[in-house]
Amino acid sequence: MAESSIQIHDYMGSQNQINENMRMILVDWLTEVHHVYKLSPETLYLTIQIIDRYLSTRLVHMKELQLLGISSVLLASKYVDIWAPMVNDLVCISERSYSKEHILGMEKSILAKLGWSLSGPTPYVFLVRFVKAAMADKEMENMAFFLTELGLLHYGMLKFCPSMLAASAVYAARCTLNKTPHWDEMLNFHTGYSEPQLIECAKQLVSFHSRTCQCQSLVQNPVGAIGGLLIDIPSENVSINCPARQAGSSTNVSTNTLTTFLSRGAARKLYQVKKFT
């Protein structure tokens, strides 16, 4: 499937039960679910893409949002991974808010709405290629993946196509870590984007990163700049949470955290690291 055919346009204005904060909470929670089940990194990206594509075609009630999320995990893991979570495990993760029949029913609804097509390119597919083209070291690679995952959290980033998000993450990582040149002809060739085309998206990614650092009270290092935007660089470790491609966290996912927050209609403090109990 061509990238242009799965470009997701603004849908939140049509949704009267959910908002951008609820989507952010869902994506953050699903990232933890992804780590717990040790799913492949592409599964997370595909899960989020499935959710956004579905939400762009159908009104979803607030109480169905978590159901949509776990059903999307099920579909994405079946498509990408050798092993997918058992439906009964997903029932438990939802604290039995949904039955096996609910999850399978939503799975059928998703497939019907998406025309049984789940093969759209995600930012992950492009990011793997672009990181290789950039001949990135481990630090830069982690930074690029981390920035991309921050982008996944934010509904507003859907205006950028997957390849641009990936290319901008690589560019932002190079600028942040003072890699010179920030962009060159080889990266232009492999990504299809020139440096000026990436500035807007890259600025947004580093602003998310800066807020992440502030929320975590990280030690500030010398700053990098993208188009005049100064950003704080965390010391030693680039990311607060390991990128999804390094899944394997032993975190125990709270089965009621998402439902509780969604029912209150309140978002947690942005990027606060969750300690599920």
Automatic annotation (TrEMBL):
Alphabetized UniProt keyword annotations: Cell cycle, Cell division, Cyclin
SMART domains: CYCLIN, Cyclin_C
GO biological process, one term: response to gamma radiation
InterPro entries, per database record: Cyclin, Cyclin-like_dom, Cyclin-like_sf, Cyclin_C-dom, Cyclin_N, Cyclins_cyclin-box
Keyword Cell division: yes
Record has Electron transport as a keyword: no
Protein name: Uncharacterized protein
Species the sequence originates in: Papaver somniferum (Opium poppy)
Source lineage: Eukaryota, Viridiplantae, Streptophyta, Embryophyta, Tracheophyta
